[in-house]
Amino acid sequence: MKFEVLQEQLSKGLGLVSKAVATRPQLPVLANVLIEAKADGLVLSATDLELGIVTRIPAKVLETGVVSVPSRMMVDFVNSLKPGKVECELSKETLIVKAGGYKGRVQTISAEEFPSLPVPSTEVMAKIEGAKFQEAVTATLHSAAKDALRPVLTGVLLSYSGSGKLKMVATDGFRLAIKSLAVEGEGWEKPALVPSRAIAEAMKLSSEGDVGVVIYPETSQIVFQVGESIVVSQLLSGNYPEYQRIVPKEYGGVVDVAREDLLSALKAVHIFARDNSNVVKWVVTESGIELSAETPERGEAKAEVAGKLEGDGVEISINAKFALDFLLASKAESVSFSSTDALSPGGFREVGEKDYLYVVMPINA
Questions:
Q1: What is the DSSP letter of 236?
Q2: pLDDT digits (tens, 9 = 90+) for 139-161
Q3: What is the helix (H) or strand (E) element at residue 212, kind and residue range?
Q4: Is a pLDDT exceeding 90 seen at residue 306?
Q5: Strand locations in 115-199, DSSP E?
Q6: Where are the beta strands (DSSP E) in 80-154?
Q7: Nearest alpha carbon to residue 280 among 232, 322, 339, 244
Q8: Could you give the percent of the chain with pLDDT greater than 90?
Q9: Cβ(322)–Cβ(174) below 8 Å
């Protein structure tokens, strides 16, 4: 195997796939990156058996071949090189890397031990505009659970039956985010529960183009494809909560406010709630929203946000961090907050946007 490649291209490709390298590998080869030198360029791959990333980069291949190299050493050495041509050649079980006055000899592991991964395909079940995919993930991913006490809650549910609308859902049991977006394609029969990590890596790719989605039911895998790169992941198994049950059918009152005003006020009041489980009290009146928080023996704060109310006012306590997640993810000028009473869920929407709903459970305080 022998090839020449630009340091900038090799560094970018290795940086991308190394996100899937196992931190505590079950097998030594899982700490490696697979390098395939093909007639039309290099294919780089990495996997920890749950997540895999594959990308193709341009290169001048003088001799085809395949080998796996330690990810961390290869990434760090290539990043230390100056921009320009890098020459790589396999000599027995060593990959020789040369650039300018630099030369590295990297010990390899046989490619035969490396797990097989899907390759980029032109056949996809759904095609999503990159910017829309990024927007939807930003709106929902923060609501997935961070711990693994209930594994199904650590994923994001993707439902698409070919109706032209993909529904993305995430919940940790205390809040719920639902975002629908336009897509093309035939879709898949059953909802797919995708690990948050895979969704996050796919979102990073989405800034470079449209996202193609393929699901393989026989292996319980999902593939996100953007250009010459793919993210492949095992789907999560288990029964997802019947989230529709906690979505209120109607609210007693709805208040519209400027998002930036509410964000600034909540940030200020949250300072006084951080030592008290992030509890902030919301009092909704005809003039808007009054936020307040206190920490015994430490202090208290209040802030008023002007708004327009339709329906009845309400007093409710919610976790300020949950509300901040919604406000920080949104780009809307105006948002609405809805609730019926202190024991009912609070709902957030972007004014004029029907395809996004964020629900927060109340705190009995």
A1: P
A2: 999 999 998 788 999 999 999 97
A3: strand 211-216
A4: yes
A5: 126-128, 155-159, 165-171, 175-182, 192-195
A6: 85-91, 94-99, 102-107, 126-128
A7: 322
A8: 88
A9: yes
